[in-house]
Design brief:
- The complex is a heterodimer of chains A (308) and B (274).
- In chain A, strands 5-6-7-3-8-9 form a six-stranded mixed beta sheet, sandwiched between helices. Chain A has a four-stranded antiparallel beta sheet with strand order 11-12-10-13, with helices on one face. A three-stranded antiparallel beta sheet of chain A has the order 2-1-4.
- Chain A contains eleven helices and 13 strands.
- By secondary structure, chain B is an all-alpha fold.
- Chain B contains 13 helices and no strands.
- The chains are: A alpha/beta (308), B mainly alpha (274).
């Protein structure tokens, strides 16, 4: 399954009227890789996904999924290998969850007899005979996940998959995705929250205003963002002002109280600073290095480097 | 074909579950029974006439009700799914866009056919209970079939509106306008023109053409005027013949009203951005 199930966008662009929803995006998702798309609303995440799903055609550049143009007429075979979970997934309300899933399974020529087991897996066993209109948002999302998993897809596209899920369901959801990852499925998922996808993606693609502004692992993005590392010192009572003064020059002092000092340390200055902390001797009881919050990395890229 | 049937099956299940079907069958049946019994009085005891009168009465009813039901059933099909967000998901499945349009159309047609069969069938049984002749039943079945064909034409128009409109509200508006225009205003306008036409510039052929291009008029002529037994009781004897409109032409007119909007709906839906 992992052979050839890659996603390749070559200079892909899409315009809606005068507005460029996506411009010259080059992105290659390797077989079995998980790439997370992040960016504000309107950054182009959904448009990019629509291109990958063949729902819309690029105005410029090209899109290939498993080597096939997803928007072309001959993409039927490819569609059978695609799983998609839209943001705020919706179903025809009058039909039961079970009937909905069986409908999609038949369309995909997936094993219809697996539907009940799949509903059980996503925790809808008790509700499967109820009309979908009586479902809560979380239940609809779980039904959406069940349909995305029909026929063990080789490529999964998940648009804000965990909106409306409580933390427990969120965890279960990602556990389920981990299973698919292990089996070699390629995944493209979008999220507003870097923290949520931190451990669930191999690389992160940041979109801003329709352009791909950053692509890399989280560590690479952190380094590129250069968001300062926070260092918290726990010091002897009363020694804080003296030590703070001693350390002040190259690092911005974020916060001092009686026995704690917070330092914002620019990337590359961490080791020299820690050496000077060590020089402060016994007055420093503890040192805590706090990696830059992911939200700050996110803000750095999604608001634009030029604004900083 | 398989995909078309799967999609049609979903529409049927949805219509049966949300009681749309029940409401349609009951309104068709209720009105049919009422008209059949009230309208049977002038027929007296003649057996053939009982069903012929029912055919005449029900045709007059179908002309208004069937297009309305058909438009109500189909206007939401594509635009509603787009608005609810189910269309995107559906189109990522291995289905072609034409299959989505045709599948929905077929599903609606089955639902409308069932409602007609139940409503008119039930009323037919009640009327013919006292003993309908074979010819009477044939007429009645033909009328029900023609009503379904008329319904199919308006289902196709509904699908076209649904492929065209960006919002459900727009689609409803267009459908009401189409219904008013084709079912009510068209004939009034035609009548007005004939009254004003003192120098008789509108000849038989022009009138015939004007009637045949409107599916509801084609239907009227097909069920009321082209069968002698019905034409006698509906007061339309020889009208179709005079206008030079044979059955094949009338059937072709309704056929065009099914195929053309449906073809256009498929073409528009193919180009639609979702």
């Amino acid at each position: 399954m992992s052979r050839g199930n890659d996603i390749v966008l070559g200079g892909a662009g899409k315009r809606y009227g005068a507005r460029a929803a996506l411009e010259g995006v080059d992105l290659r998702v390797e077989p079995g890789e998980r790439v997370a798309l992040i960016g504000h609303n309107g950054a182009g995440k959904t448009t990019l996904m629509k291109l990958v799903l063949g729902l819309t055609r690029p105005d410029s550049g090209s899109v290939r999924v498993c080597g096939v143009d997803p928007g072309a007429r001959g993409s039927r075979e490819l569609r059978r290998r695609l799983g998609y979970l839209p943001e705020n997934v919706a179903f025809q309300g009058g039909i039961s969850g079970r009937a909905s899933l069986r409908f999609y399974a038949r369309l995909k020529r997936a094993d219809v007899s697996r539907c009940d087991a799949l509903l059980e897996e996503v925790g809808l066993a008790d509700a499967m005979h109820r009309p979908v209109r009586t479902y809560s948002k979380g239940m609809r999302q779980r039904l959406g996940l069940a349909q995305a998993l029909l026929g063990s897809p080789a490529v999964l596209v998940l648009d804000e998959p965990t909106t409306g899920l409580d933390p427990v369901l969120r965890h279960e959801f990602y556990t389920r995705l981990d299973g698919l990852h292990t089996s070699g499925a390629t995944m493209l998922l979008s999220s507003h929250s870097l923290a949520e996808i931190e451990t669930r993606s191999d690389r992160i693609a940041v979109l801003r205003g329709g352009r791909l502004v950053a692509l890399g692992t989280l560590d690479e993005l952190r380094a590129r963002a250069g968001v300062p590392v926070r260092i918290r010192l726990r010091v002897e009572r009363g020694a804080a002002p003296r030590i703070a003064e001693m350390l002040d020059s190259p690092t911005a002092l974020a916060h001092v109280n009686g026995c704690e000092i917070d330092l914002a340390c620019p990337t590359g200055q961490k080791m020299p600073l820690l050496r000077r902390v060590a020089d402060a001797g016994l007055a420093v009881h503890d040192v805590e290095v706090i990696a830059p919050p992911l939200d700050e990395v996110y803000r750095f890229f999604s608001e634009g480097e030029e604004q900083r | 074909m398989r995909e078309v049937l799967i999609l049609a099956g979903r529409e049927i299940a949805e219509a049966l579950r949300n009681r749309w079907f029940l409401a349609a069958a009951l309104s068709l049946g209720g009105l049919a029974v009422a008209l059949a019994f009230v309208g049977a009085t002038p027929g007296g005891e003649t057996r053939t006439a009982a069903l012929a009168i029912a055919v005449a009465n029900l045709s007059s009813l179908s002309v208004y009700l069937v297009p309305l039901l058909a438009l109500l059933l189909s206007f939401d099909g594509l635009v509603g799914e787009a608005e609810r967000g189910t269309l995107n998901l559906l189109l990522t499945y291995p289905v072609s866009r034409w299959q989505v349009v045709i599948g929905k159309f077929v599903g609606y047609l089955v639902v409308l056919g069932l409602a007609l069969a139940l409503g008119y069938g039930g009323a037919g049984v009640l009327v013919g209970y006292r003993g309908g002749s074979a010819e009477g039943w044939q007429l009645y079945a033909a009328m029900t079939g023609a009503s379904l064909a008329l319904g199919a034409a308006f289902l196709a128009v509904g699908c076209l509106v649904s492929a065209l409109a960006r919002e459900r509200a727009t689609a409803i508006g267009i459908c009401i306008a189409v219904w008013l225009g084709l079912v009510v205003l068209y004939d009034l306008a035609l009548l007005g023109l004939l009254v004003l036409d003192e120098s008789h510039r509108i000849d038989q052929a022009m009138l015939g053409a004007a009637l045949v291009v409107n599916p509801t008029d084609a239907y009227r002529l097909l069920t009321l005027a082209s069968v002698d037994a019905v034409a006698a009781v509906s007061g339309m004897t020889g009208l179709a013949a005079e206008a030079g409109l044979g059955r094949p032409l009338l059937v072709a007119s309704i056929g065009c009203w099914i195929l053309a909007p449906l073809g256009l709906a498929v073409a528009l839906f193919h180009r639609r951005e979702v």
